């Protein structure tokens, strides 16, 4: 395939991807101590700006709805929860972001098969009405997956409006206007989904017995009545909770909720994205629990304040710069746990100023007790991460049937590295059949004041989603001159394989890149067969650390200082890393002139893995060249050579999987037995969202949000596209 890909080099540009992406002392009105690593003040001070102190009052507009503080509810007063729709979904429903509480992304529907999928046609298109406001930078990337309960779809727009539409016609039944300012949107306007909740205290038939709950990009939590979209007045303050409470200094766009909030035994668990690359003492990555009935605060897990689970008073705030979790979490009602995929401490590419507590949980999956906020266990996928390998995927839960007849409650944790870890979800330990070993990694060539670890974890029981180490022979381009330019870039760079340490005196190649392997689209899992389906990326990065003086000269400025000027694609580019000795230049490993990647295709793949057999069933390049080309000019040629992709898959009992995700702007139907693409349709915008499927009156539908993604460079639209077989072909 790689030889063929070389001949097809002129067909594909290196379209860049989106990303994003237990512990120590009491809450203080100052950053955590860095005594373990003293940094001279002159090494971190900027000559062109002064970051505001953490205790500075929040900027106007941070609490956009002017909501009062929320009270705390003692955990013993938490009402007993009732079973939820997502615990055991009806076959025709899709009541949660990942289909069910286990986040399998698997549907038992089987009306659509490999034999008839080619007859799919559009049943309806729904317009969210949200496009880029005139005169604004494009930050749209809706990433929305609808949920389906009964006869309705529930979804959120790119700016956190919530809608209920008829699942057969797309007719809008109600719309809740969030009144979210476009200026409050972080680098990507991602509202991945909403959460359906059935109350245990409001009687059936009364308003807000069934609720739709979302977290917003301007850091609110909102609950509305599922029947009519009106605010649930008994939740929070008139239906809303201010999630900026206790966060300290911030500005609009610095902190926001991008993923659906899970509800476990009546506890809403809230995480949030903190904008990458800004400053060491960015707002906290604290994880919090709230009562799903009243919206009142229950607990906080604050990494540098592990023994204080209360809200800070008005003179204090959650510890700054701690690892945040921005992707979808998974709840476990039986064990009373929530599985939190963690990111990095602030300043992704420099770790010397992190506390020991931060280093223990960075780029880890952490199991929190949903009644207390206490960590039960931590499993780390990268030690002292300086490559932005935060976990972007949602954990998938399953029951593993061991050879001795025992059944182990387990989880699947995909990663950007392409390593897939299989853990006992009671303990966080790798299952015996899926061992994890520590392997030596490069440690030389980085900055002397930030030492790397000697080893990193490898999952040796699951086939890796990745390719071998890059070599100069892998460099290529549109012409021999382009290939030569890439060879020169390769030779200039510091590169000694995976985990090459970040370097100051020359660029370093990061492969896998920070959007390599599996990201927020996650995987789908068939609990009947034990097969995992994963679409993934192969896009290296070309990065370099720069001194604070050079960062100033390049005008690398964090978002919360007056001199900051908004620009397109914040987290895909350079990082100020204020209050550290180094800024970071971050970009794809490509030919800057043609915008074609320097490594050979494929850049996107799809793989089916039999977990029980520990083997790849099939693996294919994913995505065609039709909408890609040098200088970003589409070639129109439908050759499957593997393109960058963002978004995930859905598997069905009918033997067909559906994936949008790729930069060819198509939805693809794939034969689960062979990996063959059976059907495609060109979408009105980029399909960077997870597809889903459902049924009404025996008719199966497939839906995908085709809103585009600014970091992928795919076309923008406001359309949810829904497909079905022609009525005469239904059986």
Please outline the helices and strands.
Layout lengths: L1 H6 L33 H4 L61 E2 L13 E7 L19 E3 L2 E5 L5 E5 L5 E5 L18 E4 L11 E6 L4 E6 L14 E3 L12 E2 L6 E2 L2 E4 L2 E2 L12 E5 L5 E5 L28 E3 L4 E5 L14 H6 L2 E6 L5 E6 L15 E6 L5 E7 L7 E4 L11 E5 L14 E5 L20 H13 L15 E3 L13 E3 L4 E7 L3 E7 H6 L28 E4 L4 E2 L4 E2 L6 E7 L4 E7 L27 E4 L3 E4 L6 E6 L5 E6 L9 E5 L2 E8 L12 E6 L7
Parallel strand pairs: 1-35
Antiparallel strand pairs: 2-41, 3-4, 4-5, 5-6, 7-8, 8-9, 9-10, 11-14, 12-13, 13-15, 15-16, 17-18, 18-19, 19-20, 21-22, 22-23, 24-25, 26-29, 27-28, 28-33, 29-30, 31-32, 33-34, 35-36, 36-37, 37-38, 39-40, 40-41
Describe the structure in your own words:
Its cofactor is pyrroloquinoline quinone. It contains 5 helices and 41 strands. The chain is mostly beta strands. It has a single domain (67-724), classed as Quinoprotein alcohol dehydrogenase-like superfamily (Methanol Dehydrogenase, Chain A, 8 Propeller). The strands form 12 sheets. A 5-stranded mixed β-sheet has the order 1-35-36-37-38, with no helix packed on it. Strands 2-41-40-39 form a 4-stranded antiparallel β-sheet, with no helix packed on it. A 4-stranded antiparallel β-sheet has the order 3-4-5-6, with no helix packed on it. β17 (330-332) and β18 form a beta hairpin. It is globular, with a radius of gyration of 24 Å.
């Amino acid at each position: 395939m790689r030889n063929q890909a070389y001949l097809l080099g002129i067909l594909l540009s290196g379209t860049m991807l989106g990303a994003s992406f237990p512990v120590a002392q009491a809450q203080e009105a100052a950053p955590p101590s860095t005594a373990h690593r003293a940094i001279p003040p002159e090494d971190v001070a900027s000559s062109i700006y002064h970051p505001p102190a953490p205790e500075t009052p929040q900027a106007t507009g941070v609490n956009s709805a002017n909501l009062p503080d929320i009270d705390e509810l003692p955990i013993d007063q938490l009402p007993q929860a009732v079973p939820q729709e997502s615990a055991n979904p009806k076959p025709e429903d899709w009541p949660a972001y990942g289909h069910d509480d286990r986040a399998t992304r698997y549907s038992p529907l089987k009306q659509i098969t490999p034999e008839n999928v080619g007859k799919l046609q559009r049943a309806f298109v729904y317009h969210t009405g949200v496009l880029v406001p005139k005169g604004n930078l494009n930050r749209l990337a809706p990433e929305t997956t609808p949920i389906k309960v009964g006869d309705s779809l529930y979804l959120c727009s790119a700016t956190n409006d919530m809608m209920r539409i008829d699942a057969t016609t797309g007719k809008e039944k109600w719309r809740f206007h969030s009144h979210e300012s476009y200026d409050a949107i972080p680098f990507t306007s991602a509202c991945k989904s909403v959460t359906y909740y059935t109350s245990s205290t409001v009687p059936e038939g009364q308003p807000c017995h069934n609720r739709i709950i979302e977290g917003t990009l301007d850091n609110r939590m909102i609950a509305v009545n599922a029947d009519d979209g009106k605010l649930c007045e008994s939740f929070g303050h008139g239906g809303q909770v201010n999630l900026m409470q206790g966060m300290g200094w911030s500005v609009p766009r610095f902190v926001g909720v991008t993923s659906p909030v899970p509800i476990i035994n009546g506890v809403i668990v809230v995480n949030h994205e903190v904008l990458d690359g800004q400053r060491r003492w960015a707002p906290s990555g604290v994880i919090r629990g709230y009562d799903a009935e009243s919206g009142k605060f229950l607990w906080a897990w604050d990494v540098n304040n592990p023994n204080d689970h209360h809200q800070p008073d008005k003179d204090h705030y959650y510890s700054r710069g701690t690892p945040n979790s921005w992707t979808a979490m998974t709840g476990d009602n039986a064990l009373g746990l929530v599985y939190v995929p963690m990111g990095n401490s602030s300043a992704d590419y420099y770790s010397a100023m992190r506390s020991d507590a931060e280093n223990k949980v960075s780029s880890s999956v952490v199991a929190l007790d949903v009644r207390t906020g206490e960590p039960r266990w931590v499993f780390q996928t990268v030690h002292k991460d300086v490559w932005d390998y935060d976990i972007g995927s949602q954990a998938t839960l399953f029951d593993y049937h061991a050879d001795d007849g025992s059944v182990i409650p387990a989880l699947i944790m995909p990663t950007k590295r392409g390593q897939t870890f299989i853990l006992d979800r009671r303990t966080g330990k790798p299952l015996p059949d899926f061992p994890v070993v520590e392997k030596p990694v490069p440690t030389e060539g980085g900055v002397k004041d930030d030492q790397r670890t000697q080893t990193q974890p490898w999952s040796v029981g699951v086939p890796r989603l990745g390719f071998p180490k890059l070599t100069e022979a892998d460099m290529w381009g549109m012409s021999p001159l382009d290939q030569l330019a890439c060879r020169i870039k390769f030779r200039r760079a510091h590169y000694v394989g995976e985990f090459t340490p970040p370097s100051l005196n020359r660029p370093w190649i990061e492969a896998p890149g920070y959007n390599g392997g599996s990201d927020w689209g996650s995987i789908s899992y068939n609990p009947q067969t034990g097969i995992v389906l994963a679409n993934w990326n192969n896009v290296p990065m070309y990065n370099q650390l720069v001194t604070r003086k050079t960062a100033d000269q390049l005008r690398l400025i964090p978002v919360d200082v007056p001199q900051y000027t908004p620009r397109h694609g914040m987290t895909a580019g350079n990082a100020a890393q204020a209050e550290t000795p180094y800024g970071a230049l971050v970009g794809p490993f490509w030919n800057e002139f043609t915008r074609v990647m320097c490594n050979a295709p494929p850049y996107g793949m799809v793989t089916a893995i039999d977990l029980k057999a520990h083997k790849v069933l099939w693996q294919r390049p994913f995505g065609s060249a039709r909408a890609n080309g040098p200088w970003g000019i589409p070639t129109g040629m439908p050759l499957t050579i593997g393109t960058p992709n963002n978004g995930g898959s859905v598997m069905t009992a009918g033997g067909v999987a559906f994936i949008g995700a790729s930069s060819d702007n198509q939805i693809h139907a794939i034969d689960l037995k062979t990996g063959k693409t059976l059907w495609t349709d060109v979408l009105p915008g980029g399909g960077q969202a997870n597809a889903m499927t459902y049924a009404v009156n025996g008719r199966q539908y497939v839906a995908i949000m085709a809103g585009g993604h600014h970091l992928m460079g795919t076309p923008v639209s406001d359309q949810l596209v829904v497909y079905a077989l022609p009525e005469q072909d239904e059986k």
